[in-house]
Write a structure and sequence with these properties.
The structure is a single chain. The protein is α+β, with helices and mostly antiparallel strands. α5 crosses α10. The chain contains twelve helices and ten strands. The strands form two sheets. A seven-stranded mixed beta sheet has the order 1-5-6-10-9-8-7, with helices on both faces. It folds into two domains: about 90 residues, no CATH class; about 230 residues, BirA Bifunctional Protein, domain 2. The structure holds phenylalanine.
Length: about 350
């Protein structure tokens, strides 16, 4: 009997040696100690043995059991530590390898200019107003003193969606909207946004472009306020030494209307190819809000005055960054965009 146990011990050892996984060890445990194990034979024989034999046999069986348990727990420890080692090996990170580089996106040059201008005006106490890109003919034209058939509508080749709705040709309708709802109170806003005109695209024209328009309405507003505001804007954008000048112009919604030039920041006013030898660069249109516009939106032109201006973002960005073709802004070519 003890021989049988000894050979079983050997069997346990050889079988355990072959195990490489925890489940195999568990199966082995069941095999040697479970219900169908060779031990059962021995236990059955115990019934026939006398008291003395029973004692030694019981002891031997118990010892065998302890032996199996001990061997198994050793093997389990060995396998677990091997597995941990394997995992550490496979998950090892070589910190000397070069890292992955991520391509970061960044702001579009037009967004940069818009935010810069917005910051300047917010610093002067303006609010930012926005409106829809699909506008009514009424807001886009009529409230701005451009009734049906007015010849100045020719200046804005428009995309009509139906007889009363169009893609806005400027951001002035946002100003009209604010005036309509402000109940005759003072206004100080800028309106940035996309606008559309039926132009053929070339280096200086785009059927879609961006504007920022400004509107101030209050008592005692004069052309001098407009000039001071625009001079400050231009100096912040292009340099402290700059002068601005007004040239008479025409817009249906302002009277008087002016075209605003700024000292050429490239040559300082001496004349160069950028300013076509004039020393001045045209940057925007502006004027005092036309009394008809004030009246149509519920302001008494006798007691209220206002100024308005509108500038093209692309034009400012082109001047600022020395870009010679407006189409670059809309091509989304990373080689262009990366430069800003
Ligand atoms: N809305 C005008 C345009 O797009 C620009 C402008 C605004 C001119 C305000 C004068 C005053 O042409």
């Amino acid at each position: 009997m003890t021989e049988r146990l000894l050979s079983l011990k050997d069997e346990v050892k050889t079988e355990l040696n072959k195990c490489t996984a925890i489940h195999e060890v568990n199966a082995l445990k069941a095999h040697f100690l479970g219900k169908k194990s060779p031990l059962q034979e021995l236990l059955a024989k115990m019934k026939e043995a006398d008291v003395e034999e029973k004692k030694t046999l019981g002891k031997a069986i118990n010892e065998f059991k302890q032996f199996v348990e001990a061997e198994i727990s050793l093997k389990l420890k060995e396998i677990t530590s091997l597995e941990i080692q394997k995992r550490l090996e496979s998950e090892r990170i070589d910190i000397t390898l070069p890292g992955k580089s991520f391509a970061f996106g960044h702001q579009h040059p037009l967004t940069k200019i818009i935010e810069e201008i917005e910051d300047i005006f917010i610093g002067m106490g303006y609010e930012i107003a926005e409106g829809p890109e699909i506008e009514t003919d009424h807001n886009n034209f009529e409230l701005l003193n451009l009734p049906q058939g007015h010849p100045a509508r020719e200046m804005h080749d428009s995309f009509y969606i139906d007889p009363t709705n169009l893609l806005r040709t400027h951001t002035s309708p946002v100003q009209a909207r604010v005036m309509q709802t402000s109940g005759g109170k003072p206004i100080k806003i800028i309106c940035p946004g996309k606008v559309y005109r039926r132009d053929n695209d070339d280096a200086t024209h785009s059927h879609q472009f961006m504007q920022i328009e400004g509107l101030v309405i209050d008592k005692n507003i004069t052309l001098a306020d407009l000039k001071g505001t625009l001079a400050l804007l231009m100096r912040k954008m292009f340099g402290n030494e700059l002068e601005i000048r007004f040239r008479p112009s025409f817009f249906p919604f302002t009277e008087p209307s002016v075209e605003v030039d700024v000292t050429c920041f490239k040559c300082g006013g001496e004349g160069c190819p950028l300013c076509k030898g004039t020393g001045w660069i045209e940057v925007l249109g502006a004027g005092m809000v036309h009394p008809n516009v004030l009246k149509m939106s519920g302001y008494d032109p006798e007691t209220n005055q206002g100024f308005a201006f509108g500038l093209g973002i692309e034009r400012i960005a082109m001047l600022r960054y020395g870009i010679d073709d407006i189409r670059y802004f809309y091509l989304n070519d990373p080689r262009f965009l990366k430069q800003f």
